[in-house]
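Reproducibility note. Readers wishing to regenerate the assembly model reported in the main text can use the exact inputs given here. Chain order matters: entities are listed in the order in which they were concatenated for prediction.
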Amino acid sequence: MSEPKPMFKKIALIGVGLIGSSIAHAARRKHLAEHIAGYVPRAETRARAEAACFADSLHADLAPTVANAGLVILATPIGAYAALAPQLAPHLMKGAILSDVGSVKTVVIRDVGPHVPEGVHFIPGHPVAGTEQSGPDAGFAELFDGRWCILTPPPGTDASAVERLAAFWRGCGSDVEIMEPKHHDLVLAITSHVPHLIAYNIVGTAADLETVTQSEVIKYSASGFRDFTRIAASDPTMWRDIFLNNREAVLEMLGRFNEDLAALQRAVRWGDGDALFNLFTRTRAIRRSIVQAGQDTAAPNFGRLPPGTGKT
Amino acid sequence: MSEPKPMFKKIALIGVGLIGSSIAHAARRKHLAEHIAGYVPRAETRARAEAACFADSLHADLAPTVANAGLVILATPIGAYAALAPQLAPHLMKGAILSDVGSVKTVVIRDVGPHVPEGVHFIPGHPVAGTEQSGPDAGFAELFDGRWCILTPPPGTDASAVERLAAFWRGCGSDVEIMEPKHHDLVLAITSHVPHLIAYNIVGTAADLETVTQSEVIKYSASGFRDFTRIAASDPTMWRDIFLNNREAVLEMLGRFNEDLAALQRAVRWGDGDALFNLFTRTRAIRRSIVQAGQDTAAPNFGRLPPGTGKT
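Running the prediction on these inputs yields the following structure tokens for the assembly.
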């Protein structure tokens, strides 16, 4: 089979952390772009990105990064969008697609939308994938394989531009879904933002106890606690920005979580074994569906290797 | 090297689910017992245990299971102890050790302690290890490797019996710690019981939404939610019994979790980015300590394999 023509002559990644660098690796794997440019303002990070060898050019300035790029993807924490958008907008090529990877979509439309020049296709996106690692050396080509990428094109967006971006994500290994931005933010509040918030919270609670030492928490963490510490080790800036920018949906979902927890707490206090048993049975079925949908491994303990083996 | 003399001529496992069957596998691996007997009252479960080939004899009755056993380990859900203890007590051999594997220790002392005959060493225990799987075919020899086993001998227990049980657990791959039962229950409330409760709770909340469909929750679960579903798939009977029997410690730790969550919710509502960032930074350090202590893998995403590979 001859090498197919790449989808884009040039793509520009504004930020090359876990997601940005993984896009570069995935695009290289399937030769989706002739040239991959990365915007990395900090010299130290640029050196790390250089060493990871996923880009054709790395830049400290926005103008050369986005110049002549057919696809520009914002891949910084979402709190940086408002400052970046007006700076990069004048340098966007006519006909280019401007997208992003942020975990909140209404905010992108608010902060980036107004700066998008005539003739540029603005299509916010969100690849629902990640690990607890961050930085330009954390990326890998397989991150998006079998995961969903949600696109939230504003009404009236050019359909062929949406299809080009969708094809790019499919090339990166993803399945693509189109969604309304407000609905996206609600879905992610329950599947991602509130789970992260309560994981951060329980880890904080455990760290602050005076009756149980931190070393005890660490020693006995294999009994459940360690599962929470993984997502509570995710990038702090990225997560701060998510909570600051998806407040309404997070508070709504957190309100429901709290209501349900109050009922569960009452069941514990009053020894209502049937209520506990019924909930614990119901939740098993959801796990099974997630495994059946290919969104998690069926291997016990997530397939963790026995201690002392497989450390990276 | 010649085969060392086994520690026990016979051990009896009262219940052969994930933990009981794993003890059998681990004991076989290091030849810790000449004979491993299992008590399995249900015929269907007995057939599954038979097929898993980890026991030398399987019994529907307690008397032949524990007869002449130097070590008897209760490995049923803790709610069954109160009924089992008076039934098996008359059949215990003089000089035998009676232990268990339950996740709450004060209750064992309350429900089993009064039935222990003169001349039997009663030493409650808790191997801090497990997976979300259950049943006699879920066990494996490596489950306890590098994990802690906590023993809570009552005051005055024969020190050489405690040392024999500790040596047995070390033979199973564990490190052994001695602890006061009330303190054990507090430590496990924060490292295991409350984490399970909030995991069960968030999975329940997500299942009950009307604004986000269950199929959306499943599709986008890789964004964090799926980590919670693993422990929320653990055995319902076992977990009901834990919450019914460690009420005080669970409610205390849950109270602290709720207080902290209220503060965090306030930080989200008022947009207090510094408070969020500070917590999210602190929690990273705990993850690092857990990995350094060998209690979890350093591999991203728990070392989950890419979708479509490594399914068991």
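We highlight two features of this model. The longest strand of chain A covers residues 8-14. The beta strands of chain A are 8-14, 33-39, 57-59, 71-74, 97-100, 121-122, 125-127, 148-151, 175-178.
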